[in-house]
């Protein structure tokens, strides 16, 4: 049996870090939004316990979230199946776009259909949350609020938006960025609920990311890029812990003005991509 699917990237339109937990993680409040940048996956069932991963990038066969998702599915359901997976990566790694997490959700979702395990979205999300804090979001997709360490998901009204993405020629470790959060940085917070209310009512919100102050200190060039874009529009932010910068676009003319200001960075190896909103985190291809 075989299934083909797309797993979509996400942006953090709003990301606030509230405090540090006793388990070492941080409590967060995040407004998550899927975009139509995706990875392609095909999943074939083969005899247990074989696991084969073929991909267009070098990914260690068993040191990745797809394998961990596969093993977690077997542990949860007791269904012993093998897998042959082809993965075509288009979402950059360590870019704050949740590519690896969406792949993990994709394998759990796909295996649920292939094996007729009949797990609910909540049950699949519960498997995913132990592998990565942002994995549960992709089962619900569209737009959601994430709280706790990011695993508590509440789906909200989705808005259709257009974005310009700026990809640096380097990735950034989420673990490293979060490790640099100090107590003195955790004092001030935005009115998250107000921002979410405005968003669900169709009001164009200015994006916010608490982690920018840390990541930009580590990579000053990203701060320079944001300042350059702010000469055209204030609707610009970093997604996740970086490295991607995104702009919420109002029209094509705005995009042209921004591109003109980014030429010197494109020459350095930065890449630019126009994307739209996506209404789901995972899409089955028929």
User: Any idea what the radius of gyration is?
Assistant: 19 Å
Rounded mean pLDDT is 97
Low-confidence stretches: none
The string of secondary-structure elements, in order, is: EEEHEHHHEEEHHEHHEEHHEE
Q: Say how many strands there are.
A: 12
Helix count?
10
> What is the structural class?
alpha+beta
Strand content: 25-35%
Helix content: 25-40%
Euclidean distance between termini CA atoms: 13 Å
The biggest beta sheet is recorded as: 8 strands, mixed
Choose one word for the global shape.
Answer: globular
Task: Walk me through the structure.
The chain has helices at residues 65-77, 99-114, 121-128, 137-140, 174-179, 192-200, 212-218, 220-229, 252-261, 263-266; strands spanning 2-20, 26-46, 51-55, 82-88, 143-147, 152-156, 162-167, 208-209, 236-238, 245-249, 271-276, 282-285. β1 and β2 (26-46) form a beta hairpin. The mean pLDDT is 97. It has 10 helices and 12 strands. The protein is α+β, with helices and mostly antiparallel strands. Strands 1, 2, 3, 4, 5, 6, 8 and 12 form an 8-stranded mixed beta sheet that branches. Strands 9-10-7-11 form a 4-stranded antiparallel beta sheet, covered by helices on one side.
Descriptive keywords:
alpha+beta; 4-stranded antiparallel sheet; globular
Strand and helix map with partners:
Blueprint: E1 2-20, E2 26-46, E3 51-55, H1 65-77, E4 82-88, H2 99-114, H3 121-128, H4 137-140, E5 143-147, E6 152-156, E7 162-167, H5 174-179, H6 192-200, E8 208-209, H7 212-218, H8 220-229, E9 236-238, E10 245-249, H9 252-261, H10 263-266, E11 271-276, E12 282-285
Parallel strand pairs: 1-8, 3-4
Antiparallel strand pairs: 1-2, 1-12, 2-4, 2-5, 5-6, 7-10, 7-11, 9-10
Helix pairs in contact: 1-2, 2-3, 7-8
């Amino acid at each position: 049996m075989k299934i083909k699917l797309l797993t979509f990237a996400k942006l953090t339109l709003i990301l606030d870090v509230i405090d540090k937990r006793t388990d070492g993680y941080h409590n967060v409040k995040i407004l998550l939004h899927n975009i139509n940048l995706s990875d392609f996956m095909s999943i074939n069932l083969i005899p247990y316990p074989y696991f084969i991963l073929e991909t267009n990038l070098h990914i260690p066969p068993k040191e990745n979230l797809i394998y961990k998702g596969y093993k977690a599915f077997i542990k949860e359901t007791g269904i012993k199946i093998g897998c042959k997976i082809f993965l075509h990566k288009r979402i950059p790694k360590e870019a704050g776009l949740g590519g690896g997490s969406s792949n993990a959700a994709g394998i759990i979702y796909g295996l649920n259909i292939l094996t007729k395990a009949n797990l609910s979205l909540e049950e699949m999300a519960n498997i995913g949350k132990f592998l990565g804090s942002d994995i549960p979001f992709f089962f619900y997709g569209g737009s959601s609020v994430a709280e706790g360490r990011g695993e508590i998901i509440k789906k909200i009204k989705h808005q259709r938006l257009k974005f310009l993405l700026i990809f640096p020629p380097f990735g950034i470790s989420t673990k490293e960025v979060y490790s640099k959060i100090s107590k003195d940085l955790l004092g001030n917070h935005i009115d998250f609920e107000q921002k979410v209310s405005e968003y669900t009512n169709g009001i164009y919100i200015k994006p916010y990311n608490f982690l920018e102050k840390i990541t930009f200190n580590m990579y000053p060039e990203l701060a320079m890029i944001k300042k350059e874009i702010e000469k055209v529009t204030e609707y610009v932010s970093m997604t996740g812990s970086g490295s991607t910068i995104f702009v919420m676009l109002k029209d094509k003319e705005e995009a042209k003005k921004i591109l003109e200001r980014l030429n010197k960075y494109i020459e350095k190896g930065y890449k630019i991509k126009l994307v739209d909103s996506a209404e789901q985190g995972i899409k089955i291809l028929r």
